[in-house]
Amino acid sequence: MDAPATNPETHIEMADERLRPLLKAGAVLERLWTGSTWGEGPVYLPDGRVVWSDIPGNRLLVWQEGHEVQEYLKPSHFQNGHALDHQGRIVGCSHGERAIVRQEQDGRWTVLVGEYRGRRLNSPNDVVVARDGSIWFTDPPYGLIQPQEGYGGTQEQPGQEVYRFDPETGDLRAVVRGMVCPNGLAFSPDESVLYVGDTAGTHSGETHWPERHHHILAYDVVDGDVVDGEAAHARVFAEVSPGFPDGFRVDVHGNLWTSSGSGVQVFAPDGTRLGEIAVPEAIGNLTFGGPDGTTLFIAASTSLYRFEVNVRGVTA
Known about the structure:
Distance between the termini: 28 Å
CATH topology of the largest domain: Neuraminidase
CATH superfamily of the largest domain: TolB, C-terminal domain
Structural class: mainly beta
Oligomer: single chain
């Protein structure tokens, strides 16, 4: 489906004046394409392409300026979040394969890790690559309990954890334990803080998930490890409402830009909510990209959006 001829009207909520210098004067929210079922996991490639997930559609899509949107991979085995490693390869979270996967230079997809202590992972959801090359990812059970987002199956892990995987040694360890439903994650610019979203509220009321979490937790990181990685000891960085912190990224100044049900919400490093860029659909995830890293690409329910800002993302 082609993008509409007109773009959505741009509304900015300025809750704190610290947001103003982060925004580009006159920037307009652009709808680049529409036609997905639930957009997630955008990643910006060095050649200007954006690859993102249509999870229920069991496919990856690719957008590039001046080209028609194409299917990048189908079936995608319900891939969700993505990141680039230091060799420019796409690292993906596969609900269907219950694994972290990587696209090799020849185009093949290989499984990097799919088990922890002899048991299959739940359904990896979102991923970041640290400066040392380690791969950090969340592992909620969405791909097991939502038939439209995976192949189902029995949960083998006793909990929903955040993991650190070293692709050089094969070492996998749980760095954050005891979260109800870990989802989006990102590092602060100096990687001294790990932010992890808990989106248990998406299934609140169920007997096994009575919590209604829609917040982002913050954990201190020292020497590549989380200090006291129990969720009960974490600090709540921000509550996101309406909607959930499904996916988020951090800019070079440490501000956190997160998905929500109403737009891209922006939080200062001290947790103050700075404001929001309204988006007419619930957002699954977002990423920084563009030639200078100052373009926000937003994967929402049915559409891919673009919004120019005045600050560079640390993951661009």
